């Protein structure tokens, strides 16, 4: 059996690992090294060979299944305290290899854990309101050149309105990001989401994550709600608290 | 969807309280998290993983949701 690695956490998190099942319904266990544990579960070798893994991640349904399971395990740990989430699909040949890696990289893991401390991540997305007309533009009437021009003028006006809306949304988003960053310890910017993926209306102009101390969560979320109430031209979406995924991204251990 | 209402709106999506959007999850799980070189993922470059997976997502969404039946306005 291979070993799927979800997270590294202080050894105290061991009890919390007794939460949701892992990939394929396997029990989640821990591999300990000094005061750290790697949170793992067994996965069948043949399903997690390189080729099988690649195919799995190219298949939306199976990708989603792994992603939700991975997150479920990480999230249960994060509810109890600090945790370092691992990149999706980190797999070793056996628990002994996990222990080896934990031994070799102990200092790095401990260092990143200490730098995160008791902080969690909040996601904030801002969408420009879609000001496009909801119906098709009025068809030019056959009355002649005059109404034809009126039609074109209206089209131009609508386009200008939409561009103005987008510009002010971008400005607002810069201000909002500065305000939220000041209330957070770190900020990370994700690429704006493709509406084909998110299914959301309006252009995603900000897709950011903020690292915030747990005891400052209320203040931070109140700030986001205040922003949403104050700024009428955009829609604000708050997600979290998340384990600090976005703040461990640069860490190659 | 309350997109037609221009009033203030924020979705305080406590992660446990509602299903997390897959796209939010993938932002974090494919581009975030500590990268440790595993025994198996060894030859899959991170960038490729993201590209492959997101292409898969877009392609699947497009296949599953024909443009006319998208449920999106406009």
Characteristics of this structure?
heterodimer, A: 253 residues, alpha+beta, 4-stranded antiparallel β-sheet, 7 helices, 8 strands, B: 74 residues, mainly alpha, 2 helices, disordered C terminus
Provide a descriptive summary of the structure in words:
The complex is a heterodimer of chains A (253) and B (74). Helix content of chain A is 42%, strand content 26%. Chain A is elongated, with a radius of gyration of 24 Å. With 253 residues, chain A is of the alpha+beta class. In chain A, the strands form 2 sheets. Chain A has a 4-stranded antiparallel beta sheet with strand order 2-3-1-4, with helices on both faces. Chain A is built from 7 helices and 8 strands. Chain B is mainly alpha-helical and 74 residues long. Chain B has 2 helices and 1 strand; from the N terminus they run E-H-H. Chain B has helices at 22-31, 46-64; one strand at residues 10-14. Chain B is extended and about 30 Å long. Mean pLDDT of chain B is 58; it is low at 1-9, 11-17, 42-47 and 66-74. Chains A and B meet through strand 1, helix 1, helix 2, strand 4 and helix 6 of A and strand 1, helix 1 and helix 2 of B. Strand 8 (234-242) of chain A pairs parallel with strand 1 of chain B.
Write a brief caption for the model.
The complex is a heterodimer of chains A (253) and B (74). Chain A is α+β, with helices and mostly antiparallel strands and 253 residues long.
Mean pLDDT of chain A: 87
| Helix-strand topology string of chain B | EHH
Q: What is the average of the pLDDT values of chain B? A: 58
Output the radius of gyration of chain A: 24 Å
Largest sheet features of chain B = none
Number of strands of chain B: 1
Most residues in contact: chain pair:
A-B, 78 and 54 residues
Written as H for each helix and E for each strand, in order along the chain, the element string of chain A is: EEEHHEHHEHEHEHE
Beta-strand fraction estimate of chain A:
25-35%
Radius of gyration of chain B in whole Å, from Cα?
A: 17 Å
What is the share of helical residues of chain A?
40-55%
Distance between the termini of chain A: 24 Å
**What general form of chain A does the structure show?**
elongated
Number of helices of chain B: 2
Strand content of chain B: 5-15%
Low-confidence residue ranges of chain B? 1-9, 11-17, 42-47, 66-74
Distance between the termini of chain B: 14 Å
């Amino acid at each position: 059996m291979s070993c799927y690695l979800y997270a590294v956490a202080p050894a105290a998190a061991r009890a919390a690992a007794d939460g949701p099942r892992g990939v394929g319904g396997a029990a989640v266990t821990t591999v300990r090294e000094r005061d750290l544990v790697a949170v793992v579960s067994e996965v069948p070798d043949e399903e997690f060979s390189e080729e099988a893994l690649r195919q799995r991640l190219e298949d939306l349904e199976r990708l989603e299944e792994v992603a939700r399971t991975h997150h479920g395990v990480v999230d249960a740990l994060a509810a109890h305290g600090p945790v370092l989430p691992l990149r999706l699909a980190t797999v070793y040949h056996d628990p002994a290899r996990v222990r080896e890696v934990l031994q070799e990289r102990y200092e790095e893991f401990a260092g990143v854990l200490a730098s995160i401390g008791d902080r969690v991540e909040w996601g904030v997305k801002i969408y420009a309101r879609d000001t496009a007309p909801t119906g098709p533009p009025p068809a030019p009437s056959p009355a002649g050149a005059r109404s034809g021009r009126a039609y074109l003028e209206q089209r131009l006006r609508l386009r200008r309105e939409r561009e103005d809306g987008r510009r002010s949304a971008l400005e607002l988003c810069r201000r909002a990001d500065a305000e939220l960053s000041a209330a957070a310890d770190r900020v990370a910017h994700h690429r704006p989401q493709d509406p084909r993926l998110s299914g959301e209306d309006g252009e995603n102009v900000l897709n950011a994550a903020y690292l915030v101390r747990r005891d400052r969560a209320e203040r931070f979320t109140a700030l986001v709600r205040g922003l949403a109430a104050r700024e009428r031209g955009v829609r604000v979406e708050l997600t979290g608290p998340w384990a600090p995924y976005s703040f461990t991204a640069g860490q190659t251990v | 969807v309350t997109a037609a209402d221009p009033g203030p709106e924020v979705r305080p999506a406590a992660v446990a309280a509602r299903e997390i959007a897959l796209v939010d999850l993938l932002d974090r799980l494919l581009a975030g998290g500590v990268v440790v070189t595993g025994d198996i993922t060894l030859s899959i470059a991170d960038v490729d993983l993201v590209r492959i997976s997101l292409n898969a997502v877009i392609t699947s969404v497009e296949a599953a949701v024909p443009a006319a039946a998208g449920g999106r306005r406009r």
